[in-house]
Amino acid sequence: MSAVDPAYVTAKPVNPAGLPTSYEHGNRLTAEGTSVDPILVEIVQGTLASVEMEVETAIGRTSRSPMIRDAHDFRAGIHDRQLRKLTGRSYSALVHPIVRDFPLAEMREGDVFFHNDVYESEGGIGHLPDLCVTVPVFHEGEVVAFVQAFGHHDDIGGACPGSMPSGATSVYEEGLAVPPIKLWDAGVPNKAALRIMTRNSRMPDSLAADLDAECSACLMGARRLSELFARYGRDAIETAFDAILDTTTETYRREILSKIPDGTYVWEDYAEHDGVDEPQLHTQRITLTKVSDAPADPENGRPAGPRLIIDFTGTSAQAKGPINHCGDYVGGNFLKKWLAPILRNLADTPERMAELDVNEGIVPLIEMRFPEKGTLLTPIHPGPTNARTFVILRLLGVLAGVVAKAVDGKMPADQETIRYTGVYGKDLDGNDYLMREVLGGGSGGRYYADGEDTIHVVPDSRNLPTEFTESRFPFIVERLGLAVDSGGAGQFRGGLGYEKQIRMLKDAHFMSIADRSILACWGVRGGKAGAPFQVVIDPGGPDEREVDALADAEPIRAGQVVRIRTTGGGGWGDPLARDPELVVRDVVWGKVSAAAALRDYGVVLTGSRDAGDLGFDASATEVERAGRAAWSREDDAFFDRGPGYAALADGATHASVDRI
């Protein structure tokens, strides 16, 4: 930690990057201090959450592709006419690119806008398979709000099925990029645009059906919000909107930012490969500065008082492969709302943490500073981006790590909870198929509890049901369970990842867009890193081989098994401080092996799991642990990155930023 330089707090960003943002956005709808009925605020807030959930439910029930309908990889959001996100149940894309290209005064009821162009989305869309629809809400002939949905669709063209070529070197290889267009004009669908999109997709029927589901659901949501305005009046509703966001700002200022001591803290983490170059450390660095008395910045809508400055200087150069993310648009507006949920871990209790929404109210509390164009977070068109999860998900961990340095480790250890795996080929009837799913992994141990098993970072997302996949695709799921010993050891253990085994009934190809196959989810404050991601084809068979985590077309023969093991979360605290009774319990539950109980925790077991009399020898355990060196804050690194880090860091066991 270092002291805060006052000049740094008042300095303007070096590179306010992005497309023109001269259109009005981000401002209040009512004057500061306008009186508001607190009961109406509760009604409006509840209605917004209800409408958002109703939109998502409608999409889930009427869409067609497994990624949308079954894996639930989509989100809805509600925004006001100043483009501010009002809801906090889901994250969502941005309305900014729509209003940039289509003035509010020219919009009509029944309009539906569409885009998926990464570089023209102003940071709200990360890769081309994420298709976004936006519907304006009208009251007395004027736009008063927006309902938006975006989801990860099966295929939008490009060099490989699924539109996520792991070796892409330009966005042109990744599929069809559509800048903001009017997909429905006053209730009339643009059939020509839809035909162009479906013609470019390997899965045209599911693409058309999913888009229809999303457009219809958002139009329904717009009608619901129009009814809310008609019932209470525009002035009252907009006053409630401001009150909702003001409450979020004040809550985070009082309950969250107050927990971070003033000062400057630095930490970094890495993506391990980009699909083109050899594996290396692609650095993502955050310098976090917390100030309690920052001056007001009305030009950027920032009030005086506590503020977090997140500076990404030191982030690696733009990658040749598709791990780049366009984060530097609209002052990092999307990234602020993407990263802010990590801060909720500073809440007084887990129950309070669950109550805290992330909406536009957090934006005034965070200032982001980006390096010049040409880095992982500031890529230059046409840099590829389809695997940008390696960056935006890693940034969640980087923020957690840098905050952990500020608060003596009272943050969770690392988790990496999204990767795309799948198979494609011809089904038993000779038709083309594509099966992809987003498998979760273990979350990090916390200073008060173990991590959770098989968590998905996308809210409400899930793995595909076995009954569904076996009935639709030519394979059998032979195992789906927890990956034993995958959670990082610690006083509080990391959560476990999945182990999934599928046996192919026909020749096919396996695909994977995944990270953390060399590096691992880091442990903190003496906790150990979790197990990395791994895919093995034909395990135990004559053709056994490990598959790269980035693969587009790995051949699998009929009868062969694919074994997928996802990452375990990092551990929190010294494993030698873990209650031996909990270690015995974990062995009984099959989460920790008997060998790991001794190796990682120094617990000497007695009896056996099979016989039902498993226990531990207290005296022998005490002797075993006494013979090992306990973790020391003064002598040891604060973070454990696992053995894979040394392979990419010239033998170093930890980075210079890993010590306190």
UniProtKB/TrEMBL annotation:
<feature type="domain" description="Hydantoinase B/oxoprolinase">
    <location>
        <begin position="37"/>
        <end position="575"/>
    </location>
</feature>
<dbReference type="GO" id="GO:0006749">
    <property type="term" value="P:glutathione metabolic process"/>
</dbReference>
<dbReference type="Pfam" id="PF02538">
    <property type="entry name" value="Hydantoinase_B"/>
</dbReference>
<protein>
    <submittedName>
        <fullName>Hydantoinase</fullName>
    </submittedName>
</protein>
<dbReference type="GO" id="GO:0005829">
    <property type="term" value="C:cytosol"/>
</dbReference>
<dbReference type="InterPro" id="IPR045079">
    <property type="entry name" value="Oxoprolinase-like"/>
</dbReference>
<dbReference type="GO" id="GO:0017168">
    <property type="term" value="F:5-oxoprolinase (ATP-hydrolyzing) activity"/>
</dbReference>
<dbReference type="InterPro" id="IPR003692">
    <property type="entry name" value="Hydantoinase_B"/>
</dbReference>
